[in-house]
Amino acid sequence: MASGGLQLLGFVMAFLGWVGIIISTAMPQWKMASYAGDNIVTAQALYEGLWMSCAMQSTGQIQCKVYDSLLKLESSLQATRALMVASILLGLVGVFVAVTGMKCMKCMEDDQVKKMRMAVFGGVIFIISGLAALVATSWYGNRVARAFYDPFTPVNTRFEFGSALFIGWAAASLAILGGSFLCCSCPRRETSYPPTRGYPKNASSTGKDYV
């Protein structure tokens, strides 16, 4: 029962992490314009994401523009896109594999060993998915930080971490932790020995033989 609860907890955490990775990928707030230092606060806030750039006016109206050409984007941005999409696809595969190996599901009930292996395999896929998202978000965040502290970067073009980065880091951590719980939910095999059979007791000899 304890392993079943750990398995369910791991799946829920990994699934929530996968959903968070999808949300982070779709959000345009991967980096936001910085107003620190001598920057003049304007009437709009600028955001940039993996797929579009947005500007929010003081009235609350948001205008977004999708990037025109894929080939004109920086190679690092294209790599970040690829890692996040790969993370989402791996997470989708992990959901189906892990569900198959869940103890509460009816499929593969006749072979519990294969069922447990499916759950562990799903956990491994979730861990890889979380690592891909963690690498992508950390790489993007490192680029933002380096550009912010670069003295040659114009003050009015400096950006800070956006909310999508923090969601991505949290989601990747959930996916990795949930996948680890799925891998650890498999109970250890115990060596089983065949039950010892008792020998029949000899009938008590009466000492008298009858012919």
Automatic annotation (TrEMBL):
It is found in: Cell junction, Tight junction; Cell membrane. Its main location: other. One of its GO terms (molecular function) is structural molecule activity. It is a multi-pass membrane protein. Coiled coil: none annotated. One of its GO terms (cellular component) is plasma membrane. The chain crosses the membrane at residues 7-27, 79-99, 119-141, 161-184. Keywords: Cell junction, Cell membrane, Membrane, Tight junction, Transmembrane, Transmembrane helix. InterPro entries: Claudin, Claudin1, Claudin_CS, PMP22/EMP/MP20/Claudin. Claudins function as major constituents of the tight junction complexes that regulate the permeability of epithelia. Belongs to the claudin family. This is Claudin. The gene is Cldn1.
